[in-house]
User: What shape does this take?
Amino acid sequence: MNRTFTMIKPDAVKNGYTGAILNDIIEDGFKIVAMKYIRLTKENAGAFYAVHKERPFYNDLVDFMSSGPIVAAILEKENAVEDYRKLIGATNPQEAAQGTIRQKYAKSIEANAVHGADSDENAKIEGNFFFSQLEQF
Ligand code: ATP
Ligand code: MG
Assistant: This one.
């Protein structure tokens, strides 16, 4: 078993898709190991996406990710990182495969419903950003 990290982004929470997305995640075989509903400050969002600091969309991304509450969670499944990226689909929802979370619930490349960690190493770093050791079952 291994783990990945996800966020349900402000657009999906605002549009009422939290329950549907969590259901898709559970039905795909992921176990929720830790979960919280919070609103990030600009500083929090900026630190989380620091790897994208030099990208032209960074400031907009930070504003968007701090614009409303999100759900952050650590998920467990065999092959978790790769399987979860498959479940969420391409970054741009227009290019996301049929039945993926982004295809079903996202409107734009920025407001794309969910985040998924891109490696085991980043999954661990991102999980630790949101959850203390004691909160991770
Ligand atoms: P995430 O890391 O959120 O799971 P990703 O790994 O599919 O998404 P990244 O390249 O890591 O994509 O980009 C991080 C986030 O930045 C994207 O999910 C999206 O919200 C935003 N983003 C990426 N590319 C663009 C773009 N060209 N214009 C606007 N926003 C973008
Ligand atoms: Mg990414």
Q: What stands out?
A: Helices lie at 10-14, 18-27, 42-48, 58-65, 80-88, 101-105, 120-130. The radius of gyration is 14 Å. The domain at 2-130 is CATH 3.30.70.141 (Alpha-Beta Plaits). The chain has one domain: 2-130.
